[in-house]
């Protein structure tokens, strides 16, 4: 195979969906015989391991969130990336992140290297004036754009026009541990950061409307800034004996295996990795249509997609699955096909075919 020099530009190596996806993709690119350089825009906090053959670079200055210093940091990051690109001389560049994309595009200005970008966030997420402005003035200079879902692709077409070189490629699925002969518990489970956009307040409200199912529990896995508010909501609704907060856990696969129903109540998502992992477990899943769930769940076949914000419908669908083991099993069996759809090698090759399309 003709070896190519691929440069990946990432926000960091800390814990996060983008960093997880890029660690998997960089390993796949190396596996396919390519040279890979991973440039992080933030030093330190190496949560995800990289393949030993991946060349890793990070800036020699600290990241800051202070307004004035942040502007200086952006400028220094652009210079750092530009300097590295001149040294690396990549055949192609791949960038993930709504903040990093404009920075990388500016750094590559007049260097002429093919550069492919992906936001990896929900099109419904409000980024503010500055970030939206930077995207509008830089995104058209990208060689290609990778959207995670049809919803994201439609949004980009609406904002940037029809003349985009764009493809839809979802994230790959991480390796999900299999647990045979696990005794299932009467658990409805939700997994994710306890923040406003994840919508766990909506799930708790819906759960409060479910009657005559005292032998079931709602299990919330994750932590975040809304934990105290959510716990107060549970207390006020009289659900303290029915809703359990487990915090951040490293045994999520085992918890999913023990559960019977998965719900993702998010207000917005880039690509719902937690939903995909639950389907691969496999579990019957319920989601609002506020995210790209329709790209993932075959409604009434591998799970249920309901109108965004319809709390009554959410409560009803949870109750139906609680009462119907056969339906739960049918949805779960159909959901497991996501393992093949989002296989790491399959998704990795889709990325390679796109970012090297002008080199083949």
TrEMBL record:
Residues 183-336 form the Glycosyl transferase family domain. The lineage of its organism: Bacteria, Pseudomonadati, Bacteroidota, Bacteroidia, Bacteroidales. Gene3D superfamilies: Glycogen Phosphorylase B. It comes from the Bacteria. This is Glycosyl transferase family 1 domain-containing protein. GO terms for molecular function: glycosyltransferase activity. It holds the Pfam family Glycos_transf_1. Residues 15-171 form the Glycosyltransferase subfamily 4-like N-terminal domain. It comes from Odoribacter laneus YIT 12061.
């Amino acid at each position: 195979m003709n070896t190519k020099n691929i440069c990946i530009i990432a926000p960091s190596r800390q814990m996060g969906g983008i960093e997880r996806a890029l660690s998997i993709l960089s390993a796949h690119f190396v596996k396919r015989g390519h040279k890979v350089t991973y440039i992080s825009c933030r030093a330190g906090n190496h949560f995800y391991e990289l393949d030993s053959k991946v060349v890793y670079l990070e800036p020699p200055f600290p990241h800051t969130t202070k307004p004035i210093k942040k502007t200086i940091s952006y400028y220094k990051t652009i210079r750092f990336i530009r300097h590295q690109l001149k040294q690396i001389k990549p055949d192609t560049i791949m960038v993930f992140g709504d903040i990093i994309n404009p920075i990388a595009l500016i750094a590559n200005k007049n260097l002429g290297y093919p550069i492919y970008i992906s936001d990896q966030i929900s099109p419904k997420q409000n980024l503010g004036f500055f970030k939206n402005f930077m995207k509008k003035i830089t995104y058209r200079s990208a060689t290609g754009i990778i959207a995670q879902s049809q919803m994201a692709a439609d949004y980009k077409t609406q904002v940037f026009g029809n003349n985009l070189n764009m493809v839809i490629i979802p994230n790959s699925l991480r390796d999900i541990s299999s647990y045979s002969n696990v005794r299932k518990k009467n658990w409805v489970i939700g997994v994710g950061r306890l923040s406003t956009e994840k919508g766990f307040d909506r799930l708790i409200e819906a759960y409060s409307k479910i009657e005559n199912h005292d032998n079931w529990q709602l299990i919330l896995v994750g932590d975040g800034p809304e934990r105290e508010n959510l716990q107060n909501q549970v207390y006020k609704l009289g659900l303290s004996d029915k809703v359990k907060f487990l915090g951040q856990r490293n045994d999520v696969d085992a918890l999913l295996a023990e559960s019977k129903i998965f719900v993702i109540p998010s207000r917005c998502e880039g690509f719902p990795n937690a939903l995909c992992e639950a389907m691969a477990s496999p579990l019957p899943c319920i989601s609002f249509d506020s995210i790209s769930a329709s790209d993932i769940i075959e409604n009434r076949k591998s799970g249920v997609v309901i109108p965004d914000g319809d709390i009554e419908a959410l409560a009803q669908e949870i109750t139906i699955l609680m009462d119907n083991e056969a339906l739960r099993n049918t949805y779960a069996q159909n959901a497991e096909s996501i393992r093949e759809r989002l296989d790491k090698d399959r998704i990795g090759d889709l990325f390679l075919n796109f970012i090297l399309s002008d080199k083949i």
